[in-house]
Amino acid sequence: MIIGITKEIKDHETRVGLVPSDVKGLVESGHTVYVETGAGQQCGFPDEDYVAVGASILGTMKEVYDSSELVASVKELEERHYPLLRENLIVTTCLHSNSHPDEVDALLNSKVIGIAYEDITDVSGGFPTLKMQSPIAAKGAFIMAAYYMTSVQGGPGIMLAKVPGCATAHVTVLGAGWSGVAAAEAAAGMGNQVTVLDISPDKLTAAKALLPSSVEFLLSTKSNIEDCLERTDLLMNCVPWPKNRKDYLVTRQMLREHAKKTLFITDVACDVDGALETCVRSTSHSDPLFVEEGITHYAVDNIPAAFGRTSGRLFPQAYAALIQEIADKGIDRALRENEHLRRGLTCYKGILTLEETGLKQNRPYQTPEEALGMK
């Protein structure tokens, strides 16, 4: 199979679809790999590293798309990608199709085979890409909050750290999953008062075993959230919201009635129309903040890209073996034999195969099994 790796064009996206060690395995298995020049540069992999393991360098994104049977990327497709799509091309990336109806149109109209990393599962029922990137996103969000809450950035001038003689800042973390634990670890490590809320007692118990004894753990109820808002300086949302839900975990009214005027919000989950009613849009590293209800929100949807050498090496570990499997077996056989890969199938030759996107965007859809003729 011919695999292509392109340079990301999303704002300040520094990660790369596959790193040289992944390419080495593909080449040794008899596959051809084309890399767009500079694709790995920002996460520490110059073109020479790819050439050294057998890849060939091409000058443009179009050349890579035109020459490849599978294109491995990092973030969702943008308008510049759409003319490059063609029937039967395999595209593997974080598609986030629920939030991008124009992208879905392009995928379906071109009849590509689209696989979303974020929906691929593992044997434990978890999502390996999220497991890999969520801790970086959460800790990165805390670092960014500490920066943007400074007076010189127009923030309230509150230091997110324990300082003798001063009241210690309070950080509330919604969710006790991978990102929630990482956010709490970062906040508690700087000496802040930290409260973690989750609907699952089991998750709270598991988080308690990982975090300092100073961290408070509460069930995620409306009254508990409201109580926390009364004293919170930083609210970190780490709850991935079910895509078909129409309610909110934190409403505008709750913020109006209970939040401090100096509250700062980081939405790590970054679901538009997600857990936070006021998270009305995602933002970029170039324009990271917006204000709703008088509260500053940080809602960058590719936080790990700010830490390219860390996240860029880690990110492909979640799915590189699956791309190797696709290359070795062919896409249809790989999808039929691997239920975890199949869970990531967003579209197949003009058929939408992701139920959540079908429901949210009111589109017809089939299960991956139906689209593949397995039922």
Plain-language structure description:
The strands form two sheets. An eight-stranded mixed β-sheet has the order 3-2-1-4-5-6-14-15, with helices on both faces. Strand 14 and strand 15 form a beta hairpin. Helix 5 (128-148) runs parallel beside helix 6 (178-189) and helix 11 crosses helix 12. The protein has 15 helices and 15 strands. The longest helix has 21 residues, at 128-148. The chain has helices at 20-28, 47-52, 61-67, 101-110, 128-148, 178-189, 201-210, 222-231, 252-258, 308-314, 320-329, 331-337, 339-343, 355-361, 368-371, and strands at 2-5, 32-36, 56-58, 70-72, 90-93, 113-116, 170-174, 193-198, 216-219, 234-237, 264-267, 289-292, 295-298, 345-348, 351-352. 47% of the residues are buried. The protein is α/β, with parallel strands linked by helices and 375 residues long.
